[in-house]
Amino acid sequence: MKILKKYLLIYVIFFLTILLVLFSKNTFAYVSQEQFNFSQISNDYITQRAKDENIFLTEVKEEFLLSQNVNPDLFLEKGKESYRQGKYREAIDFWQRSLSQSENLGLSLNQAQIFNYLALGNQALGDWENTQKFLYQSYNILQSFVNLDANGKGILAQNFNTQGSLYLETGKTQEALEIWVKAEKVYQEIEHQSGIFGSQLNQAQALQNLGQYRRAKRILTDLVNQLKDQPNTLLKANSLRSLGVALQTVGDQKQSKFILDQSRAISQELNNNEELSQTL
Question: Closest by alpha carbon to 93, among 81, 110, 108?
Fold first, then answer.
């Protein structure tokens, strides 16, 4: 009887082992087939999409791979690239996708930053209502933090800068000036030099619009002196151009021409056609 039980146990173990092996093979075959089907579908989709829309295969592959990758930074950077090219609606689409992924991952600061970019995109399209909506959403997220780190403060300063631009474009020049002063203070807290310079330039622009030319001239003169030894940048060209205009307004034509010539030379060096058109 003991011998019979022993053989019976061996038989059961052997039978279970065979079942396990067979199950594993079927599972592997199923997964492999699924992987093959997914790969085939992906390639078919990419090839057909490129053919239908008459665009480069690499562009479709890049877009497809982005859609499979849960990384909001990828869409964020693609949006920035589109924005720089003047493709504002495309930029907004990328940023919306980045926002969705950030929400799924619970990345609050990322969401605040993306709302800032969505505000910029809608501002470029002249959609003031959505610009304001996204700025409020960004600001509300930032206000929920007891203490913001340097990154969070940088996002807050960006929010203030964009809000100031919106105020200026909608005729609220005094409000624009006040919020750009706040932006400068935040940038000073995190020692963000280019942010400080940009905020000062914005303030000077608002002062010029308010007719306070001499005050604007003081800010711009100080700003240009600080930028004198800095590398040539669009910010430097902008600052020189604004100072040149301010000098024209207060009657210093000779110095104005000298400053505007410097701005034009930097613009030519940077090959920035938009900025160059404003200095001619």
Answer: 81
CB 196 within 8 A of CB 187: yes
CA distances from 48 to 32, 51, 54, 60, 68 (A): 24, 5, 10, 10, 18
Six-digit token pair at 188?
């000073």
Q: Is the dihedral of CA 113, 173, 247, 261 positive or negative?
A: positive
Most distant pair of Cα atoms in the chain: their distance: 119
Q: Give the separation between CA 114 and CA 77, rounded to whole angstroms.
A: 11
State the Cα–Cα distance between residues 267 and 274, nearest whole angstrom: 9
Give the chain's length: 280
Dihedrals φ, ψ of 29, to 5°? -65, -40
Q: How would DSSP label each residue in 175-241?
A: HHHHHHHHHHHHHHHTT-HHHHHHHHHHHHHHHHHTT-HHHHHHHHHHHHHHHTTSPP-HHHHHHHH
Distance of CA 250 to the CA centre of its chain: 38
Q: How far apart are CA 16 and CA 31, in angstroms?
A: 22
Amino acid at 270: L
Q: What is the pLDDT along the chain (280 residues), one digit of tens a residue?
A: 545 444 444 444 444 444 443 443 443 333 333 333 333 434 454 455 545 555 444 454 445 545 555 577 889 999 999 998 999 999 999 999 999 988 887 888 999 999 999 999 999 999 999 999 999 999 999 999 989 999 999 999 999 999 999 999 999 999 999 999 999 999 999 999 889 988 998 999 999 999 998 898 898 888 888 888 888 888 888 888 888 888 877 677 877 888 888 888 888 888 754 443 333 3
Q: What is the pTM of this model?
A: 0.68
